[in-house]
């Protein structure tokens, strides 16, 4: 039975995304200053870390640094504690992502880094997080509290902050000029349009419940793989159903056997190096009559939700999370579940 007042807090967080983009834009000078401090520190290796959604945020923001001569790793905080801590050194920069700035694994990863001499940066929306104790730079983005438990505007704004940070590092090192102000305008335009037309996405979520679809496979490539992971987690943590995410073309190697089941395949197909390969997979899957939803900024058909077209692939990939958050909200609500207080979830995980 659909739940009328369920998810109001989470929906209001999601609807604040355009305002959050503006607030990140107001922090560009601070972000640039942190980028300069990282370059001055001459970090030759970068570790990006976090937990849950914040780990996926860390994955995406690390992408622009995947260039010649820079060692980049995106690893969950727990794995740094258990396996990778010994590899941290003063040559490394550790960028931690944490909405609360209080998650125990992330704080411990930062402590280990500090002990090993890493240059520690944390990106957070909590002004007074415990992470301050271990941080050389504390990148606080004042988007306001997140009322819901699952991460929505915090994911978007921390990831955007991290992408501005890493693209600035590349700017300084390689002289690649990014027009971030123009990109943010286009990103905001897209967010406003998606929110204005949110009923279309709500109708999709409701239709999936009506069709008894309770298996979802999210496909993404390059910078949209972390978004596939986050979209899958959003649905899983709010509706408790079987969802999974994988690199798009990996679907051909086994999981394609599931085509024919009552499932939805969600293909994130942003313009960029992977575009034509993923578009071919999408068309092959359509020919196999699978339920499929595409998110793209090119070759838009009736089955495609529009992505932003900033010309910066990582940002266009990030733009996909907004419709996926709205879909998770509508699907949970149509099931009569309250995404504002998902079963077993806590706002801050303080134990491991
Ligand atoms: C990370 C996290 C979220 C998750 C839930 C509990 O928190 O695990 O990813 O969705 O809200 O907290 P944080 O380190 O970003 O505060």
UniProtKB/TrEMBL annotation:
Domain SIS: 34-180, 204-342
Keyword set, alphabetical order: Repeat
Entry annotated with the keyword Nucleotidyltransferase: no
Record-linked CDD domains: SIS_GlmS_GlmD_1, SIS_GlmS_GlmD_2
One of the GO BP terms on file: protein N-linked glycosylation
Keyword match Repeat: yes
Gene Ontology molecular functions: carbohydrate derivative binding; glutamine-fructose-6-phosphate transaminase (isomerizing) activity
Pfam families (alphabetical): SIS (PF01380)
Protein name: SIS domain-containing protein
């Amino acid at each position: 039975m659909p739940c009328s007042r369920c998810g109001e807090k989470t929906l209001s967080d999601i609807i604040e995304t355009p305002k959050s983009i503006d607030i990140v834009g107001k922090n560009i000078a601070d972000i640039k200053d942190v980028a300069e401090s990282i370059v001055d520190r001459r970090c030759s290796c970068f570790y990006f870390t976090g937990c849950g959604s914040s780990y996926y945020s860390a994955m995406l923001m690390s992408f622009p640094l995947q260039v010649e001569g820079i060692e980049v790793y995106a690893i969950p905080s727990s794995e740094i504690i258990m396996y990778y801590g010994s590899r941290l050194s003063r040559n490394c920069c550790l960028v931690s992502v944490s909405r609360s700035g209080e998650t125990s694994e992330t704080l411990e990863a930062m402590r280990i880094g500090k002990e090993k001499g890493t240059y520690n940066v944390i990106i957070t929306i909590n002004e007074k997080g415990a992470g301050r104790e271990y941080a050389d730079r504390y990148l606080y983005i004042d988007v306001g509290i997140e009322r819901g438990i699952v991460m929505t505007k915090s994911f978007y704004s921390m990831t955007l902050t991290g992408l501005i940070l890493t693209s600035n590092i590349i700017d300084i090192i390689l002289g690649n000029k990014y027009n971030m102000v123009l990109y943010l305008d286009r990103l905001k335009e897209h967010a406003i349009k998606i929110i204005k037309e949110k009923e279309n996405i709500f109708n999709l979520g409701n239709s999936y419940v009506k069709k008894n679809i309770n298996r979802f496979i999210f496909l993404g490539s390059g910078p949209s793989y972390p978004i596939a992971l986050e979209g899958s987690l959003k649905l899983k943590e709010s509706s408790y159903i079987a969802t999974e995410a994988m690199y798009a073309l990996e679907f051909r190697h086994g999981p394609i056997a599931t085509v024919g089941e009552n499932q939805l395949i969600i293909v994130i197909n942003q313009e960029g190096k992977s575009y034509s390969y993923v578009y071919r997979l999408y068309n092959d899957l359509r020919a196999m009559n699978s339920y499929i939803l595409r998110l793209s900024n090119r070759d838009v058909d009736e089955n495609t939700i529009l992505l932003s077209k900033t010309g910066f692939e990582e940002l266009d990939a990030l733009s996909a999370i907004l419709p996926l958050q709205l879909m998770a909200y509508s699907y949970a609500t149509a099931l009569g579940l309250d995404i504002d207080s998902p079963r077993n979830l806590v706002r801050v995980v303080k134990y491991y």
